[in-house]
Amino acid sequence: MEEIRQPEESALQKTEKPQKSPVREMAEAVLVAVALAFLIRFFLFQPFYIPSGSMEPTLMPLDRIIVSKVNYWFSEPKLGNIIVFRYPVDPSRDFVKRVIAVGGEKVQIRNSQVLVNDKPIPESYLPQGLRMGDFGPVTVPEGQFFVLGDNRNHSEDSRFWGFVPRDNVIGQAVFLYWPFDRLRTLGGA
């Protein structure tokens, strides 16, 4: 029977690495954690809270959501997506609304029904019996979006201040994580 032996350490392996102090190891770990958190928040996912009731009943005031910045790297926002964007009138403010129409589509509201290209769109997320004033028709310019709050009678949206340029879109709301009893994914229409 042949004996199995462990390889002997080479001369290079025998040299000991200098010991790091516990403070230095802790500082390095904190720096790596901060760098990772910054990269994730800046490029991938960002948390937001909902300050108003303009998206009720889908999102309630003080709900907390995760917005994916990755979702629109290779595709564009589409009908029913809930997006977070920089408010076109004051880009220092962030808004959350639902995409109703994209560039080239015609939007109008008649008899409390939203029509895109003269066809009613399904909006199962709206409360029953919601009444809205007539609007439009308007045609969405290319590279821009028409957005509405789900709480149509208490929402400032594209009906009042116009379209959202693609460059203003931060990302898609994908997950509601607070409060825990309302924890869920946020899909499209």
Automatic annotation (TrEMBL):
Keyword Cell membrane: no
Primary localisation category: membrane
Keywords per UniProt: Hydrolase, Membrane, Protease, Transmembrane, Transmembrane helix
Domain of life, per lineage: Bacteria
Ranges that cross the membrane: 29-50
Catalytic activity: Cleavage of hydrophobic, N-terminal signal or leader sequences from secreted and periplasmic proteins
EC number(s) per entry: 3.4.21.89
CDD domains for this protein: S26_SPase_I (cd06530)
Location(s), subcellular: Cell membrane; Membrane
One Pfam family hit: Peptidase_S26
Record-annotated active site: 54, 97
Coiled coil: none
GO BP terms: signal peptide processing
Region (Disordered): 1-20
PANTHER family from the UniProt entry: CHLOROPLAST PROCESSING PEPTIDASE, SIGNAL PEPTIDASE I
Protein name: Signal peptidase I
Organism the protein comes from: Heliomicrobium gestii
Originating gene: lepB
